[in-house]
Amino acid sequence: MTLTRKQAITIAGIVIAGLIAALALLLSGRGDDHAHEEGEAAHGQPASNASAESAKTSQQADEPPGLIELTPEQIRNANLDIRAAGPGRIRSAVEFPGEIKFNEDRTAHVVPRVAGVVESVSANLGQRVKKGDLLAVFASTQLSDQRSELLAAQRRLELARTTYTREKKLWEDKVSAEQDFLAARTALQEAEIAERNAAQKLTAIGAKPSARAINQFELRAPFDGIVVEKHLALGEAVAAETAVFTISDLNTVWAEFVIAPKDLGHVKLGESVRIASAAFDGEAEGKVSYVGALLGQQTRTATARVTLPNPEMAWRPGLFVTVSVATGDAEAPVIIEADAVQVEDGQKQVFVEAPGGFLARAIKTGRTDGKRIEIVDGLAAGDRYVAGNSFVLKAEQGKGNAEHSH
């Protein structure tokens, strides 16, 4: 069969169109494969890794927000004390602001008791001294006069004793009259009185009867303590009544606090109280040693005092404290250890057990006795919480917050 020219051109056109379509399909398939490879390269991971990452993200979504993850070994190493919240008794107390002061019964304002000029100073501010330790040496004309008086009295006494002994023997031997013997005895008695009087004048000012120099006065510590004030310098002229040193025995101090009239019934002499300071974590217990009987005219408050043992010198005068006076015991449905409470952004919280670690839980607190605290909201009886070393979790919480902020 013979094809016409027109038919041949039509068939050729169809064949060319088919070849073009096939070529286009081939090029499109290669482009999709290249795009897929570029997508994997852009994400830096194969398709299998992307699936694993998706699974990991899903697993993290199942964890509670804010979870602090710790293994059992980490919990043991951190010495976390985990306990169960529950009912208990809270000792209710009234708190008063107070201040640590020197125990005035064991504080001395040391005065020389004789006027003089400072020749040497042996004690320094803050130095611990023992009873009888040398504090300073003075040169005093007053002391020179008193020692001279004693020396003269001692010489007159020696002469009076000699005269009395001689007159007594002469009277017994019938050589002299009794009147001479009686006069010698009277003179001896007067000499003894004068000598004793001169010696007691020296004792009254704390001076020894004799010294390396007749005018030298040694000022010594009246008891064991610490030099807390010093008001003299070498070569300074000092009056007899000048307080040149203040020495205090800091083994005991006073915690003084003021009481409003409405609280006077809560504070009784001899009652045990707890002392705490915001300056450090230490606490101490003492007994009320004084309660003022009268209210101050200006403040309308009474003053009370606690004598506080201070063997380690932790309670220093000038330190502000809180004095807690117990008023009774009360039942509370949920109490925890006070050390368990942490503060984050002004909100009180505790750390409770959760699968895989611990969670911070906001709480509201009620009464406290300093050691235990009542939980009004946020915890139920039986909830297990971190009672000791919770600051470790607080530090981990801070790290987590810092990471999220970046």
Overview of the molecule:
- The chain is built from 6 helices and 22 strands.
- The chain has 406 residues and is α+β, with helices and mostly antiparallel strands.
- The chain folds into 3 domains: 91 residues, conserved putative lor/sdh protein from methanococcus maripaludis s2 fold; 89 residues, Efflux pump adaptor protein, beta barrel domain (Elongation Factor Tu (Ef-tu), domain 3); 139 residues, OB fold (Dihydrolipoamide Acetyltransferase, E2P) (Beta Barrel).
- The strands form 5 sheets. A 6-stranded antiparallel beta barrel has the order 3-12-15-14-13-16. A 4-stranded antiparallel β-sheet has the order 1-19-18-17. Strands 4-11-9-6 form a 4-stranded antiparallel β-sheet, with no helix packed on it.
- A hairpin with a 6-residue loop joins strand 13 and strand 14.
- Helix 4 runs antiparallel to helix 5.
- The two termini are 84 Å apart.
- The relative contact order is 0.16.
- About 7% of the residues have low confidence.
Give the CATH level 1 class of the largest domain.
Mainly Beta
CATH-defined architecture of the largest domain = Beta Barrel
End-to-end Cα distance, whole Å, is: 84 Å
- The number of helical runs is 6
Question: What labels would you give this structure?
Answer:
elongated; alpha+beta; 33% helix; OB fold (Dihydrolipoamide Acetyltransferase, E2P); conserved putative lor/sdh protein from methanococcus maripaludis s2 fold; four-stranded antiparallel sheet; Elongation Factor Tu (Ef-tu), domain 3; 6 helices; 34% strand; 3 domains; six-stranded antiparallel β-barrel; 406 residues
